[in-house]
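Researcher: I'm preparing a figure for a lab meeting and need a structural model of a single chain. I don't have an experimental structure, so a prediction will have to do for now. The sequence is pasted below. Please return the structure as tokens so I can convert it later.
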Amino acid sequence: LGQISALRVISRTSVMRYKGTQKPLPEIARELKVDAVIEGTLLRSRDRVRITANLLHAPTDRHLWAETYERDLGDVLGLQRELARTVAREIRAALSPQEQARLSRSRPLNPEAHELYLKGQYHYYKWRTEEFKKAVTYFEKAIAVDPNYAQAYLGLAKTYGWQWIQGSLPPKEAYPKFSAALKRALEIDDTLPEVHYVLAVSAWYFYWNWAQAEAEFKRALALNPNLEEARFEYAWFLTSMGRSAEGITEAKRAVEGDPLSFSANLALGSNYHVARQYDQAIAQYLRTIELDPNDPRGYGFLSSAYTSLGLYDEVVKTHQKEMTLLGGKPEDVAAVGEVYRASGYPGYLCWRLERAKHPYDAAAIQAQLGLKDEAFANLEKCYREHWWAMVQLKNNPRWDPLRSDPRFQGLLRRMNFPQ
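Model: Understood. Here is the structure written out token by token.
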């Protein structure tokens, strides 16, 4: 359904928050700002599956259409496409010729491979080092069962990519595996929107090929306008290119399509932050934290926004919360507060600098401390390493202390950032 441009389809991330809820359907629809809801039941018996689907007018809870389908499990993708075509027809959504062709196309699905793939997805979306390792295992098992299953290769590519970005897998090990898996997915099915989304991220983070990255983001969103993961990454990309107004617009669209998604809401806050709209950024980060108070990412981003405003008490308190959620030792969390009280914000920055795990993080702290030569030495290391976070260099406020230095502008030119 997400591939139909005439429809705004709420992402699974937001919908699954209502799993097991007792809320009435009209209330859920109001919260998600939708006119219609599809609900149903699924019964699996060995290699057969029966689906009963209902289309309801959400404000009135009135049934518009209902149907029962029974299929071989290997034809479940064909069944999904048939359901999408039927729903589109019932609500009179106009389909383009390209959409009609995509919804008519189907390949047989190996049920065992598909189940292994779904288990891989489950672990992938937990965003943790150990879970990524489990995801790789399941994706590889799916490929062993069906060597032509494009989604499994795609899942493998995404997992290797995030392990590199997260720092849990060295670039020299992660990148060849990422590249090989993505290439194979593209060879099998170049019509998958997610393939073009991952190609966009690859061109952006790995190759610093800004034109290719934008072209692939647009291709992914043309194939699936409701692919919110691609949309909020595209928003971040636009802002990193210095196109903050466009980035904010795309981030707002991502939140509309996935209102309860932590990542989409975080992206909107980050776009406000990089656009120097600090009050809006802080308000958005606080809303994001409300969605999941136990996700450390929200506190890390909020701490950066407080830094931009010089609210150092809040910086330290928020950083302590992030440390706790990341599993920091209580004595280390307490030490941060003690250092800040004894030595002020410069002392706190020095404490962090001693513990910086990567030259990029060290450079950002050195920039705040006025240690420009040291900061540029670390940025040169990141440039030679082709570190992914360097894509933030052009527009992120953390680099404002270095921005007027000719060395900084020279670095931007070497990375071929648009002027």
